Records
---
Amino acid sequence: MSQVVSYELHGNIGVISVNNPPVNALAQVVREGILNAVQQAQGDASEAIVLRCEGRTFIAGADITEFGKPPKSPGLPEVLSEIENSSKPVIAAIHGTALGGGFEVTLACHYRCAIASARVGLPEVNLGLLPGAGGTQRVPRIAGVKAALDMITSGKPVPAPKAKEMGLIDEIVEGDDLQAAAISYAGELLNAGAPLKRVRDITIDPESIEPGFFESARKNLAKRARGQIAQDRIVSCIEAAVNLPMDEGLQRERELFSELVTSPESAAMRHIFFAERQAAKIKDLPKDTAQRPINKVAIIGGGTMGGGIAMCFANVDIPVVMVEINDDALERGLGIIRKNYSITVKKGKMSEEHMNSRLELISGTTDYADISDVDLVIEAVFENLDLKKEIFAKLDATCKQGAILATNTSYQDVDAIANATQRPEDVLGLHFFSPANVMKLLEVVRGEKTADDVLATSMAIGKKIGKICALSRVCYGFIGNRMLSGYGREAQMLLLDGCTPTQVDSTLEKFGMAMGPLAMGDLAGLDVGYKARQSRTDLPDDPKLFRMGTVLVEMDRLGQKTGAGYYKYDPETRARLADPEVEALIKEEAAKLDIEQREISEEEILQRCFYPLINEGALILEEGIAQRPSDIDVVYVYGYAFPVAKGGPMFYADQVGLKNVYDKICEFRDRYGEDYWKPAPLLKELAEKGSSFAEWAAEQA
Ligand code: 3H9
């Protein structure tokens, strides 16, 4: 028997145990071990077989690191047919999460029992894949076509009690000892003469599916696909489950799985899966760095940002005190939070009771003395360095020793803020993205003097509140906003060169961005960028630079809030509409600046907008602002809605080829000047070597 899978008899029950930490992924040795154990059990004194796992979870899926490499025997389908064809009932005993291939293993078993806290799911879609070991054929046979489609296209795990209602689990077992409970359940099944239940024997009546069901599912899913093809292929597999015999359905599933596993989309999404987990690790911090307890949090500032941050903590049962300058502001802040929660309740996504228990965790004060006992303070007032310094001096005077003092600034100097206290080692940036209770990214900004345990605690608390954390050093705009500057600049330059706003935005949206940069400007308010530019002294003195944004603001076209910006907005539906007035204005401005307008290809729009991101990303790596290129990808995917199916700007650059990116940047430099297009030395070096950011990262690791 392999080391990671053991088999032993407990009376008349054979018990197969998988032990492949951390998540019992189905590596080749695990597949082989299960196959051998099932075969062994056919010839011994066992009358039933229990399949269980050691450690924190049941099998969490195929071993993702094996994808993209030559397949190793036995394949998972072979193991599953051995289980399904066992002459003795095989009972899966589930704890933790049975995901992907792990859940598919249980579906090939004859019975499934689970503890109530377990969850089961098919999250393959999050990796640009579909369940490739029968999930698309077995789930619809058990739970029905609609439920299967929802479960597989959303990738969301289902809690065991709900899975039992859906028929996906046969029994919820009690007690702390799952193995003993599963053995006892197996005994009951034997005593009752329970049959060898095979999911494959269930048939779905095609007549039960309403006409047009699959077409409309495809259409709905395409709306949010953003360059992903997996959803469409999942629909095809479920259609096959309805219309084809089991073996042909499995064959179809295999073919489509093979298509996806070799697709660039899946490669990009697998990159992000590992990048996300890597980003949480700080290179020079020992794994066992001590953490400070965080049992109570204070938020300074009850605006939209402060309110969203407060909700993040209340959502994980951590009490929060919100600090405002006066009672009115405090009431307004707490009101925003109440309103946000009640919207969730109205949508049916939260019970009234649940909302109240969260609201009870959020209190307010106008007196700093009331936050002297908190473990973490997050300042979220508006962007004014002097004000922030003043607040941190006050926090220094009030908060207990050991409290972590964080600023949510988007671009101010965290070191200057830290130095306003006598304890700069306790200070760092925790940069949330708006709306803070929704957006997944948290940039953890390490000041020059930030202590190791402050960083370790911040990474852990970020994970606890459901954020994906990436570490940045201090610079203007940190990783994300610093890179954004050139992206926004080029979107506007493209207008003067001959594009319409629709052309720019729709090209980027077709690539997979959630929203193009000009429409995004309209959403955020064009005055925001305008004001930020006025306070910058490092921008070239060039009338072309951010010209259209400036002209529109000066016409009081501030974006959605004034009903017009780069576009006009339908007052009722808020639909964005091309505005011939703006298009004419762009032509006028170009003429004033002597710019000869021309046809611009989609390819050039992508290069002009994305290559500044990549170039700045290379500078950020050289300067040590980001730890790894993949951290930058995480920032862009989770903070700026860069399409996950493209893997983030640095992964995308590697796919395009750094030599191609570099050559194009040089061409733009020759055309538009060094002020805007200056290749980063690291990009040049890697391009000349024929290397990639991924290879560079591997050398640095
Ligand atoms: C599939 O099953 C295809 C089949 O349908 C068909 C096949 C033919 N493989 O997330 P964590 C690593 S596709 C390899 O921090 P948590 C992870 O990188 C798969 N490694 O823990 C990390 O490594 P490190 C479908 C994996 O407690 C460590 O384990 N399944 C895998 O927060 C801990 O991970 C999925 O998509 C894997 N499958 O969350 C499930 N999973 O420590 C993917 C994890 O070096 N996994 N690792 O950074 C998860 O969703 C979460 O890991 C889980 C635990 C919820 C299980």
---
Amino acid sequence: MTDLDQMQQELSAAIAAAPGLDALDAVRVRALGKQGQVTALLKSLGGMTPDERQTAGPRIHALREGVTAALADRKAALEAAALEAQLASETLDLTLPAPAAPMGSVHPVSQVMDELAEIFADLGFSVATGPEIEDDWHNFTALNIPESHPARAMHDTFYFPDDAARDGRRMLLRTHTSPVQIRTMTSQPPPIRIIAPGRTYRSDSDATHTPMFHQVEGLVIDRGIHLGHLKWTLETFVKAYFERDDIVLRMRPSYFPFTEPSAEVDVGYTLDKGRRVVGGAEPDGWMEILGSGMVHPNVIAACGLDPDEWQGFAFGCGIDRLAMLKYGMDDLRAFFDGDLRWLRHYGFAALDVPTLSGGVGA
Ligand code: DAH
């Protein structure tokens, strides 16, 4: 028996006897690795005379191929056996309770936005959106707030550097959701009924102001719209939102550049052990909740519509404040701290989708 035959037999035996994948790999390294027996034979071909190589070459190559094939076969067999064993040993008892999964919750701001969408959908409003990075035409000019208007200064605007201007318009972080009114009127024909919830930004920070906060805008444009429509819509909305019928609203004359006439709307509250609770037929006091009015003809005209044909009303209010009033939080900053304990306490279960029939906040 030649050395080659013997080596072949030994290696075949080792391969067949390898009890597992690690052991099999050790055999592979012993035969075919850099320092392996078969590798050494292959290297020796270089030092042979052409005649020697003629006879030894094919035999050495055949040995290498045989060993390689045997290794692959054994590997496949071992893997199949391992899978069999795993399948036989693993069972899944579907009657066991599911393991406790870490649970997220819906942030109160998202919850209130969902509630608003649900309430207004019932009144025929759809949800509109606009960019948070706005230009000063949409945020101010088209809303009847020209360059020199004092309201621009009141907004504590975050402006982008001048060289970020687009089409000659200065860019900024929108200071309110009102520019969505403009974007909606310039992109779809009336009649229009939308709400636009979203993020807004002002350079302001204390217990009741954060640089980023949330507003919702409402806009209706149609023929023959008047203050009565506005008042009914707001009353219907506030009653549905606070889930009480004994809500009293008070409209105070006010001023916004984009509405004429304008009104600030207060909701009556009653005192319950010193705490203000929204509602009660005979209020102990009033809290301001939103700004509103009839859309100014200049705004309608800026959007390319004829103000003699189309009228409308608009309103805007802070979502964070709405959430605080309904769910009893007293510090606005906690909304944005990302504190898990606060989120667990005030958050809502992900599957508790607000519905009017179920009670929007239930
Ligand atoms: N945009 C106003 C603000 O941020 C809120 C507002 C007031 C919106 C009256 C309106 C409105 O649409 O009619 O203070």
---
Amino acid sequence: MQFIDVAEILKNGEAFKGKTVTVAGWVRTARDSKNMAFLALNDGSCLRHMQIVINKAEYKGDVSQIMKNGVSVSVEGTVVAALKEGDVEINATRVELLGDCPQDYPLQKKYHSMEFLRSIPQLRVRTNTFNAMLRVRSKLSFAIHRFFQERGFTYIHTPIITGSDCEGAGEIFRVTTNGYTDAMAAKDEADFVAHDFFGRKAGLTVSGQLEGEVAAMAMGKIYTFGPTFRAENSNTPRHAAEFWQVEPEVAFAKLPDIIEIAQSMIKYIIGAVLAECPEEIAFFEKAFEPGLRDKLQKVVDSDFVILEYTEAIDILKKSGAKFQYPVEWGLDLQSEHERYITEQVFNKPVFVVNYPKKIKSFYMKQNEDGKTVAATDLLVPGVGEIIGCSEREADFDKLKQAMEERGMNMEDYVGYMELRKYGSVPHSGFGLGLERIMMYVTGIQNIRDVQLYARTAGDLM
Ligand code: 4AD
Ligand code: MG
């Protein structure tokens, strides 16, 4: 292609000096002085803009046409030293207007709230925040793949449409081809399902874990990385209806082994973002979270806390802090409790381990005490839970009992149960929410702003 990335030119400014280049992008701001016009051009290849200098006397067209926020242009010119030491800019010899941008362009040069930007997902990508967010998300995703690939994990694509409910929380989006009127005509649910596409209840997956376990029982070490869906009606800044999960599953691994993998992975991917996105992290530090860089560096450099659930309850009870939700052994930790523990007590990531079995999922390995399961959540300051993790129950009878206690439909899990019948082995895995770690890494406080399109209840742009 004839166009060179702005990132490429800015990175190798010295080498480009004196060379003729062609770039293309969108004008972020335009500035006028007596004889000259200056355009700040962004092509999305990096956060920084390329300054384009136009000699008005030599410009053949109407310069006011290109001096508008949002217009797209291609520019041919010579790379020269800029005023600022070490920087380069382009002395334009030819500017071509590719697409005009009328005055009602919503992204004029002023402050825009995140709420306002959510109303224009098609344009908010052209702001620095979303430019930086999307690049970090891309680098983070690639680092996740690298981490697992370098360690011999096989990347598995688990189905999006499933007949099971991994988390059993009733948050499944139903998948059906029955139209509204057919549904009304159905006698009852069984009749509705019988006439449906699959002839049984189907939904969008809430987690690739159950199929991931199937793959791990042959491939040993696997990971999934794909979209998962939950009809979470809770309107919080941390819950999305569609989000990406990374779910490794490791045969022969016990809880401490999988905790070790989770910790190494978090350190690795955060280290990668620090190394590969220094400008973006500096931007987020300035715009969203003071001290962000140091916080992330500390995560890379120090080990996480491992805290028994029972101890966490003790700490919360003795804290004297006022919580909205009750603190009692046997109750789940609410977001306020999680944040108290990681923010007020430890100020670093914390693995809370061995939760009461009643509040956790059916598939988790039951501990000897008969009361807890070998499960852990990784909590981080500012966000709360980013990872849900457990050793899986590998014993057929114990698993069956846990499922029956929860009133689950055993027919939907025949294949899953067979893993415990034919060559069962201890195994463990976890799920990392990509949007949650994105919030932690960028300091962006609302999950709606770490996705290209926000996907939350009542909101489908
Ligand atoms: O804790 P969860 O529900 O665990 C599972 O789904 C397991 N099957 C994972 C496994 O062991 N393979 O979800 C895992 C993570 C959470 O810690 C959180 O980061 C993220 O997925 N998550 C959400 N992220 C955004 N919006 C939601 N509604 C989320 N629900 C879970
Ligand atoms: Mg969880």
---
Amino acid sequence: MTSNNINDNFYQLLREQFPTDLSLPAVYDDAGVYSWSDLDKGSAMMANLLQGLALPKGSRIAVQVDKSVEAVMLYLATLRAGYVFLPLNTAYQSAEVAYFIDNAKPAVVVCSPATFGWVSKVAFTHGVGSVFTLSDERTGSLLDRAAHYDSQHTPVQLMPDDLAVIIYTSGTTGRSKGAMLSHHNLASNAQTLKAYWGWQPGDVLLHALPIFHVHGLFVAIHAALINGSPMIWMKKFDAQSAIAHMQRATVFMGVPTLYVRLLAQAQLNPQAVANMRLFISGSAPLLTDTFQQWHERTGHTILERYGMSETIMLTSNPYSADARHQGANQRKGGTVGFALPDVELRVVNDDGVVLANTQTGHIEVKGPSVFLGYWNMPEKTAEEFTADGFFKTGDVGVVSSQGYVTIVGRNKDLIISGGYNVYPAEIEAVINKLPGVSESAVVGIAHADFGEVGVAVVVADKGAVLDPLAVLTAIKGELANFKVPKHCVVVDELPRNAMGKVQKNILRQQYTSHVFASH
Ligand code: MLC
Ligand code: AMP
């Protein structure tokens, strides 16, 4: 990997783009305004605190906290100190957190004061050295301790391939895998998106996504920081407030559910978005209906892009004329646009033979933002890469003669619900352990708000009687709430093909028609 940076610490690159006047606003929060100096000094103090713990190089800092600007400082502090940030969805329950802690063996865990009881128990049981708390109201032991540290900090010297973040993604078989992303992965993608999306002086990002996944943490926050642009910060998405904030914002990023909810607001009209320059959608398929309605209601054309935790962003519809594609500048609904300038994207058949444009197959990618591999899972990593170094995305797609990529399906058994990934295998494993359950199949069906939601189809043990609601209640404590199927049905048997494999397509058809007929 080549690099011209004297220090390949990604924070250094971000810091160089901060405005010269550090007293300017960097984040507008409900509670007040944070300046660029606040971000720099707050993250310096936390970085000094972390370094004061004298942790070994590459130590993981696992963080499960509510969205706050201080949580962003903690992320930046971890980068500065050269440790590895491990963000965890706040919806994860103790069994899930225990798995991540056991797998990643973090040296430090930061959790919310409200969850300290059970998180610290899990952490200390797994040998974690330090557990701090951080609330979304500027309180917690992390801030108390960091207050004693210096507000100057020089980012630790790093190499481009040094690890910056581990993001866990669930798997089609068994447990989650930690995708290892380097400082170079983060830096290259942030720079590419800054140029491709035409970030400019005066831009203001409306940040409404959670910050424990790639979309909210990397795509959104990196974009603002690397452009020296302020963010309007929403702790939680709410359609009415988001529209009100658009008076002062220029860029918005959302999963399709956010666009669906915004469209349901009567006050969404061209005046409300007159200040906006760009609307970006990703993480899940944007229905062409939503794309068209948005254009009719606002006059704006949503720019849809596609990425993964393992790769950050891979493709994007053009913001402006793309010289690589005869100056095409059209954002096409139903497509995820062109491979980004430094991404090689190809479509292959089942035998790995590269297909021509307009032929459908498996999407494989190579590029500077593609991850280093799965944490402590070399065999899994080897399986997911081809001999010539392409990553197998698990998505099925087609590239048009003009170069537009369309995702037509997935060859991984995955449900994307409101932008969150839900792997049926994980849910089925939990359901199958319940008393009286013989087997189960979880399938995704269309849903007006979340795009897709899970339905659990369960078979009882011989002689046992199962209450569908009791099944859902029983798994609620075990799984993050967004993973819990929205509906459960008990059946006599699951449909199987001649090989004995459950025919999920049949279940999907069967339940789509009646379960959510009212939506
Ligand atoms: C919440 N609920 C969901 C859900 N979110 N159910 C299914 N799918 C979801 N995504 C359920 C809760 O379990 C709860 O049910 C009820 O809805 C209310 O919870 P809530 O927290 O009040 O929901 P709400 O705030 O309305 O959240 C909806 C949402 C949120 C769409 C705002 O899910 C969200 O922020 N999604 C964005 C996800 C995201 O950032 N993805 C990026 C991944 S990165 P109950 O029964 O418990 O009351 C990636 C790569 C890439 O994919 O390309 O970007
Ligand atoms: P995650 O593992 O959470 O990073 O999710 C990555 C997956 O989200 C991809 O492999 C795709 O299946 C899906 N995805 C992301 N963006 C899009 C999009 N714009 N359209 C369709 N699917 C998408």
